[in-house]
Amino acid sequence: MSACSDACKGDQAVYRITLALTLFFAAHAFLVTLVPYAFAKEIHTACFGVKVLMFIGMVIGMFYMENESLNQFAEACRVISLIFLVFQSIVIIDYAYTLHFWMIDKEQTSWDIANLSLSGLMIASVITVVGLMFHWFADGSSCGLEKFVLSMTIIVPFFYTVAACTDYIPHGALFPSACVTGYATYIAYTAMLSSTNGECNTLIDRSGGASQWELAIGIIIAVASITFTTWNIGSQSSKLFGARGEDEKNDQIKMGDNYQDQDADEKKDNDEEEEEEENISEEVDGDWAVLETSIMRVCGLCTCKQV
């Protein structure tokens, strides 16, 4: 990193920390799925001191890697980031439906009006912003790609928004469609803004960097989606690993059941042993009876001969 400029050093630092995070959580997920359930739960919910030390060591180790390796990692992230965009869209849909049903469950006219008002406001904002983007980014003769992307940003949301309000989609709703449309418009705006084509991008930043408010919006969206996802998964963690108190109670119940099963097994074994001893005793008694009968018969025969 010594041969880099200040901007390059900043990029390389981000690449190294990102690679350390990627490897750390990938190893964590692989280890949790590999080991037995009880051990996986301890790894997932405890061992934070060991995890922190491991992560710090990984971050330090990343700064000894060559710049070329990190550049290749950055190029791979450009492609893999599509998965993150899809994941973020799913999170927004989940959050939008959660908020939508929360307002519907109020069963009040005021909340229905608020639902429709928010949906209408987002749709109107999208139409306004897309119109401005046609002026900012698609005004030149060589801006065919920009015109296509902006056209799709209007056409595709129009069709799925109309479909969401019909009977073809039983669980469709206007509010989630408006939220997804707003997010798609924001993604289109950031993509247009990053273009280096001066003929199309009239808002191009000559300094080569994004403005503060653009970074702030991106950070807010990313943090909100990740926070909601974490909270949603955390609230359902009992389905994955079980609540701590419930686990202890279940363990006690299982221990009690095990003791009862052991007592029942021991009693069963004792009964079987007693039954076996009785059978042996009966067999012995039977043998003695046969022997006694034989002796009596022999004695009788002898008596008859004497007579």
From TrEMBL:
Pfam name, any one: Serinc
GO CC terms, sorted: membrane
Location of the region described as Disordered in the Swiss-Prot/TrEMBL record: 244-286
Membrane topology: Multi-pass membrane protein
Start-end of Acidic residues biased regions: 271-286
InterPro entries cross-referenced by the UniProt entry: TDE1/TMS (IPR005016)
Predominant place of localization: membrane
Biased composition (Basic and acidic residues): 244-254
Compartments it resides in: Membrane
Family named by the database record: Belongs to the TDE1 family.
Protein name: Uncharacterized protein
Spans traversing the lipid bilayer: 17-37, 43-64, 76-97, 117-137, 149-169, 215-234
